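call fold(seq) -> tokens
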Amino acid sequence: MAHPKSRISKQRKRKRRTHYKAVAPTISTCSTTGEKHLRHRAYIVDGDMYYNGQLLIQADDDVDIEEITE
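ret:
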């Protein structure tokens, strides 16, 4: 295993790690349904699945929404 030639100071280490941070997810609002959702992902509203404001899958009346999401 490789060994460092010299010790890395706290300041140098912390400068390198300044960009390691959590980023809040980007949330959009659908123009069709008005539902808030994560960008570039399909989302379910009242049993119907939408993506990019378009209906992908229409829910049947006999299918329960909890069965789909689990």
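Residues 25-65 form one domain.
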